[in-house]
Amino acid sequence: MNTRFATRLFRRFARDNKAVSALEYAILVGVITAGVGAAVAAFTDQIDDMIDQIATNVTANEANIGTGGAGGGGGDAAE
Q1: Domain residues of the chain, as ranges?
Q2: Which of 30, 54, 65, 75 has the highest CB neighbour count under 10 A?
């Protein structure tokens, strides 16, 4: 790429307010994306533990329902 052409292109881009606004928005989106990625990475283990606990509770409640324990069920409706 010709250096003179690149310089003219950059100057034209810098003078165009729409291009500057688009660049600002692109940088903002990049910063937000990096922040969301960092938050997800930081909370991954906690989210995993929470999902495992929910799965354990659901499994325990299913077992209780089948034996007539807490959670109702297990008996005849006609009784």
Answers
A1: 3-65
A2: 65
